[in-house]
Design brief:
Elements (H helix, E strand, L loop, with lengths): L2 H16 L3 E6 L4 E4 L1 H7 L3 H4 L4 H4 L5 H14 L3 E3 L25 E9 L5 E10 L1 H22 L9 H18 L3 E8 L2 H27 L5 E6 L2 E7 L3 H16 L3 E3 L2 E3 L3 E7 L7 H17 L5 E3 L5
Parallel strand pairs: 11-12
Antiparallel strand pairs: 1-2, 1-5, 3-4, 4-5, 6-8, 6-11, 7-8, 9-10
């Protein structure tokens, strides 16, 4: 080997040692043959301690079955493979050194796996190239969180913190479709605050808003985690009682009605009392659409109001 060849090898070795990506070379027994400066710095494992060590003993957090499958596929196909932080946040559990404190503890990583041929043409080693993509991942996750918050805001009625009408109708449609597929019992409740205009006239819109907030919170407190509720419009609310038949649903309605009847809404040193009327319909196979389901619950609600309010009414075709 010429002096020039030695110089080039020395230059290349220095470059690999100092490059700002991780470089690991493994043999077929998953023993480390090369360990560059990036890996040494972030793992706190000296090169002389890493060389010859088994990768899985040195880093037990690596999923051995998953990792072996990736490597063996690269060797079998004699082709590169890639992993991204979206698939697996990190390969090596290195601490994050981003200046943003307290957000993510570990370095997000992408990895390239490259098969390495020997002079005989056999693949005897693979190279792992580890990229620190914490900046990109952190920014993308922050953007995703903002978008999720915005999406949630677009679904929520800001006054009652229940779903708004648009998302509520979407959920009613979805539950009706689920009923059509599975046949599981489901009931739809429409609720209206009695004489709400009188509340607004007597206590002003701020008083009316406080009543709406209290009614919304009471519904939220009494419903199960699987149930869905929202403000349908004005002083009207809707509740989907999932996996519930009419016999069980009316117990919930009466409990809700009594709770609201006995609730005192406090506003500006005044006490406001309200009652509610409720209509309910259980989905059935004869219904053609969720709009028909809504209409039946609405008809039952208006019958409850006609009958004197502060009561519930089950839908009856003879209404």
């Amino acid at each position: 080997m010429s002096i020039e060849d030695l110089r080039q090898m020395h230059w290349m070795a220095n470059m690999i040692a100092d490059i700002d990506v991780g470089m690991v070379v493994l043999d077929r027994n998953y023993e480390i043959c090369n360990w560059n400066g990036f890996m040494e710095h972030h793992s706190n494992i000296e090169t002389e301690d890493a060389i010859g060590a088994n990768l899985f003993k040195l880093f037990p957090e690596i999923s051995e079955d998953w990792f072996r499958q990736k490597i063996e596929t690269v060797i079998l196909l004699n082709n590169k493979a890639f992993t991204t932080w979206e698939q697996r946040p990190y390969i090596f559990k290195f601490k994050s050194y981003l200046p943003i404190t307290g957000i993510h503890k570990f370095m997000f990583q992408n990895m390239t796996i490259i098969p390495l041929k020997s002079l005989s043409g056999e693949i005897e080693q693979v190279s792992l190239i580890i990229y620190d993509v914490s900046d990109v991942a952190t920014n993308r996750l922050a953007l995703l969180e903002v978008n999720q918050q915005l999406e949630a805001t677009n679904r929520i009625d800001q006054l009652t913190q229940l779903y708004n009408r648009g998302h509520l109708e979407h959920r009613i449609d979805g539950e009706f479709s689920r009923f059509k597929r599975s046949g599981a019992a489901v009931c739809l409740v429409m609720l209206d605050i009695d004489f709400f205009k009188k509340v607004n006239d007597e206590y002003g819109h701020p008083g009316g808003d406080e009543v709406l907030r209290v009614v919304g919170k009471t519904i939220s407190d009494l419903q199960r985690n699987t149930d869905v509720s929202g403000r349908y419009g004005g002083e009207e609310f809707a509740i989907i009682l999932v996996d519930t038949n009419i016999e069980n649903a009316v117990h919930f309605l009466e409990r809700l009605r009594i709770k609201l009847e006995n609730t005192v809404v406090k506003h500006n040193d005044t006490e406001i009392r309200v009652t509610v009327s409720l209509g309910i319909s259980e989905a059935n196979s004869e219904m053609k659409s969720y709009e028909e389901w809504l209409s039946q619950s609405d008809q039952a609600l208006y019958k409850a109001k006609e009958n004197g309010r502060n009561q519930y009414q089950v839908y009856d075709p003879n209404l």
